[in-house]
Design the sequence.
């Protein structure tokens, strides 16, 4: 009987995630049509912000309680999950119609990840710990706002209205707002229920807290991105699915880290995260291959398989 409640939480969490992902993407499509912007832009902003809510709250709460390791680890782990499992799944699923990420957003993510990694490397002290100050955090927030502005400007030039018109239903403003709220809340509660049920089940089975944190909690905070991307693919918008991944990682790397540093200086132990930071940078660099149409058209599924395999190899290395 003790297994029934955790399993019930897990199943209910999955239901919330599926419904939340579908509602959020539905509202996002209507917003793209209404404001005449591309699905990619909506994926990078509205969908990415909604699905990154768990990471934002976890990082801010952890930082306010002085747990910088949990705060930065949550961001890096989510980035690896997003590219490895979520983007990998998108590429495998949509290999017949490969969709390239936006040039501005990809370059912004690449430069942001590179500067972030280099800063940590050169700012580290003798103990291998680097500190992201409040001033650096403020600069990161300003850079994020500027990047969103540039993305919006480019999106207005290439709205990709055909893709949007094919899947939009012309819903009213109240319906769109309700769908947006229901979608974000559904993803949030779904992730909470999934993590709570999985942690309880793992505890009953005698699994260690470390394994729970590295696997269940990480997957739980990344689940909204996965289910929102799946919902976007099902509705015929691969652009929004790809934009969700790129946007979520942009949000994580620049906006969430910057916000955490504004709460209090963010200390990063490179001795613990060196391998994860390098893998995060390598996976981010790999996204650039998708900017080459001919390469992406012929190897989209292969790149997706490599992403997924890399994620599970990294997970296995962390666990064992």
Sequence:
């Amino acid at each position: 009987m003790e297994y029934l409640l955790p399993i019930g939480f897990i199943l209910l969490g999955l239901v919330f995630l599926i419904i939340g992902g579908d509602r959020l993407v539905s509202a996002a499509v209507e917003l793209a049509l209404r404001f005449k912007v591309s699905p990619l832009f909506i994926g990078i902003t509205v969908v990415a912000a909604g699905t990154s809510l768990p990471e934002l709250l976890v990082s801010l709460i952890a930082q306010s309680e002085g747990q910088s390791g949990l705060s930065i680890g949550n961001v890096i782990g989510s980035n690896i999950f997003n590219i490895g499992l979520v983007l990998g799944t998108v590429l495998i699923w949509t290999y017949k119609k490969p969709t390239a990420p936006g040039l501005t957003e990809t370059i912004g993510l690449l430069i942001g990840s590179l500067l972030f990694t280099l800063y940590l490397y050169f700012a580290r002290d003798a103990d291998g710990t680097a500190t992201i100050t409040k001033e650096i955090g403020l600069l990161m927030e300003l850079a994020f706002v500027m990047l969103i502005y540039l993305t919006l400007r480019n999106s207005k030039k290439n709205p990709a209205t055909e893709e949007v018109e094919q899947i939009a239903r012309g819903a009213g403003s109240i319906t769109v707002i309700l769908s947006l709220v229901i979608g974000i809340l559904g993803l949030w509660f779904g992730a909470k229920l999934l993590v709570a049920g999985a942690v309880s089940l793992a505890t009953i089975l005698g699994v260690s807290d470390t394994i729970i944190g590295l696997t269940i909690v990480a997957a739980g905070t990344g689940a909204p991105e996965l289910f929102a991307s799946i919902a976007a693919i099902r509705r015929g918008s691969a652009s929004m699915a790809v934009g969700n991944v790129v946007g979520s990682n942009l949000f994580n790397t620049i906006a969430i880290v910057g916000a955490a540093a504004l709460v209090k200086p963010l200390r990063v132990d490179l001795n613990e995260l060196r391998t994860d930071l390098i893998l995060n940078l390598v996976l981010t660099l790999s996204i650039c291959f998708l900017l080459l149409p001919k390469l992406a058209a012929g190897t989209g599924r292969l790149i997706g398989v490599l992403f997924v395999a890399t994620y599970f190899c990294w997970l296995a290395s962390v666990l064992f």
About this structure: The chain has one domain: 4-319. Residues 173-204 form the longest helix (32 residues).
